[in-house]
Specification:
alpha+beta; five-stranded mixed sheet
């Protein structure tokens, strides 16, 4: 035999189940005499009484006497902390790589404003809603600066392309044709195996007669290259052959430019050590030392640094340049890029445009930059 249940609030705010088939009119009358409605009235049908907000879900005072300016203090504190994050992210401890992980995805941290906004509204907290103006302004300004990073002078001296072509790329020749189609003066590639180097050179040798390939990094240039030498970026923890950096002098139409091509170690996550940034950070320190010792005034770095410009692990490198690239130019992963691991940085020059190119069969997206010296 089927039974129908009604759920309703009792006078203490809890739910009670009632079986209508076992409530006759006498029981209902008895219930009217012993139960209060939400509005404090007695003697009315409980099923018809008006429903009111549970405690704390209205803009007035709640059951504890707190107004909307006193509720949601924790939400307000989180909102202010989020607003300070773009400036004070370096103060976050890097315990097991947490600091680097936060800085890698720093542009996306602003999305936390949305759940905080919903929580503030749910708590009916005027205090939290006002506090949310801090992160909204901070992240709104950050996004606005990134989206309007370029758009001034359209003039530039030449273009360069940076791309991790991937050693398992099934069509490196097709990738090389796509990169050359953008018209750069120089193309820097990482994960260049001997087989990849041969196929790429076969496509680029006519337009880019000057090349330098050392280990797994390569540079193809329309400008003559001189003083090509390897960079010692190998961390102490890596055994066996490991050559992922080179330095060359390009004889450009604007004079001599020291060109660095680098591929820093990947960052790995594991348990219980967390995010393993040590080898990457050590290689970045070695690269930073080489950049500091550079005697040529104009310096160009092209590379997959396995980190963002906000990542404290790359400070030894980023601090050596006048322009490390602006804007949201995400290059990894290919299917849904969320971070920029591929970089173009300059000293003694300016990046007037930084953008991505059409994807190749690599897991990275190519990055193109227009430079003005």
């Amino acid at each position: 035999m089927s039974r129908t249940y009604d759920r309703d609030f009792d006078h203490r705010g809890s739910y009670v189940d009632e079986d209508e088939n076992h409530l006759d009119e006498g029981h209902v009358d008895d219930d009217r005499g012993h139960r209060d409605n939400w509005d404090g009235s007695r003697g009315e049908d409980r099923r018809r009484r008006p429903r009111t907000w549970p405690e704390g879900r209205h803009w007035g005072r709640d059951g504890k006497g707190r107004g909307s300016w006193r509720r949601g203090r924790l939400i307000a504190l989180c909102a202010v902390a989020l607003g300070l994050l773009p400036v004070l992210h370096a103060l976050v401890p890097d315990f097991r790589g947490v600091g680097s992980l936060l800085e890698t995805f720093l542009p996306w941290a602003g999305l936390v404003v949305l759940p905080l906004l919903l929580m503030a509204w749910w708590r009916r907290s005027t205090l939290a809603l006002v506090a949310l103006l801090v992160p909204a302004g901070a992240w709104g300004g950050l996004a606005g600066n990134a989206l309007t990073a370029f758009g001034g002078s359209a003039s530039y001296d030449f273009r360069v392309v940076q791309h991790n072509i991937a050693d398992d790329n099934p069509d490196p020749a097709g990738a090389a044709r796509a990169l050359a189609g953008a018209g750069p003066a120089m193309i820097a590639l990482e994960e260049v195996t001997p087989g990849v180097a041969a196929k790429v050179s076969g496509v680029l040798k006519a337009e880019y007669p000057h090349r330098a390939v050392l280990g797994t990094v390569g540079l193809w240039s329309r400008f003559p290259l001189r003083d090509v030498r390897p960079l010692d970026l190998k961390p102490r923890s890596i055994a066996g052959p490991w050559q992922r950096g080179l330095r060359a002098t390009a004889l450009t139409t604007q004079g001599h430019v020291a060109v660095y091509v680098a591929h820093l170690p990947s960052v790995r996550a594991g348990w219980p050590e967390g995010l393993r940034t040590g080898p990457r950070n050590e290689a970045a320190e070695r690269l930073g030392a080489a950049l500091e010792a550079e005697t040529v005034d104009r310096v160009l770095l092209l590379g997959d640094l396995n980190g963002t410009t906000d990542d404290r692990g790359l400070d030894p490198v980023v601090s050596r340049f006048d322009d490390a690239g602006r804007g949201f130019v995400f290059s990894w992963p290919r299917r849904f890029p969320v971070v920029r691991l591929d970089h173009v940085m300059v000293r003694g020059a300016e990046i007037v445009r930084l953008d991505t190119l059409a994807v190749t069969d690599s897991d990275h997206v190519p990055v193109i930059a227009e430079l003005e010296f």
